[in-house]
Amino acid sequence: MFEIENLHAAIEDKEILKGVDLTINMGEVHALMGPNGSGKSTLAYVLAGHPSYEVTEGSVRYFGEDILEMDPDERARKGIFLAFQYPTVIPGVSMANFLRMAVTNVRNSRVDSTNGNGGTPKVTPREFRRLMREKMQLLKMDESFATRYLNEGFSGGEKKRAEILQMALLEPTMAILDETDSGLDIDALRVVSEGVNALAGPDMGVLLITHYQRLLNHVKPHFVHIMMGGCIVQEGGPELALELEAKGYEKLRAEVAVPA
Ligand SMILES: Nc1ncnc2c1ncn2[C@@H]1O[C@H](COP(=O)(O)OP(=O)(O)OP(=O)(O)O)[C@@H](O)[C@H]1O
Ligand SMILES: [Mg+2]
């Protein structure tokens, strides 16, 4: 479904991604781990279409279609979703309005692209409110968040839940979650993981960027990839995350001979 091939990307003439290869199929959960500064968020941004990054080589195909020329909103309408490592505060825009606009745009484009046959049906304002309440309950979020400005004054963990709420409403096909577990307390980690598990399924691919094995106890990955210095240097099953936890990056770096 999602094929990243020899992807190179730079920011301000500094090459950060140096040949990333990664394929994600429907129904698969992939974990991406790696030391600070290795390029994980850069990969997430490039996949979502952040305009500051320049792709210098390689390709990204989504259902066979090259997405690198598409604008971020076009990618979003096609079902690609990114939960940010550092969600943005948007004062003046309430969470409910933001989510309703996003959902309306994404769903309606799905309806249009299928001529109304078999697509996700359009959402009425009333249905949206019901849907939002339902998903907020699933994520154990207080309803008062709906009327607050997007992420303004939200605690670290509240921002992360708001990202998952977005994902729950948009129902993406390819979800990229950048350190959605960081800053969550133990109960929140369970709630958010249950949310991800409830959404993940045969019709979705997930790329989970994380530093901790802890999350992977809740959301079981099929594959684990380790990124260092802008490349994926090792791949394996869930056991690789455990091995990494025991060994640390220094030992791994020596084994795969990646410069620090
Ligand atoms: N605008 C920029 N100018 C220069 N270097 C940048 C810029 N943006 C990112 N970088 C560098 O790119 C590298 C990769 O950053 P990235 O955020 O992708 O790392 P990461 O793997 O997500 O790290 P972390 O685990 O800390 O989130 C870092 O060394 C960072 O300093
Ligand atoms: Mg990062």
What does this structure look like?
- The protein is of the alpha/beta class and 260 residues long.
- The chain has one domain (2-256): Rossmann fold (3-Layer(aba) Sandwich), CATH 3.40.50.
- The protein contains 9 helices and 12 strands.
- The strands form 3 sheets. It has a 6-stranded mixed beta sheet with strand order 6-9-10-3-11-12, with helices on both faces. A 4-stranded antiparallel beta sheet has the order 2-1-4-5, with helices on one face. A two-stranded antiparallel sheet has the order 7-8.
- β1 and β2 (14-24) form a beta hairpin.
- α5 (156-170) packs parallel to α6.
- The chain starts with a strand and ends with a helix.
- Residues 11-12, 14, 16, 34, 36-42, 85 line the site of adenosine-5'-triphosphate.
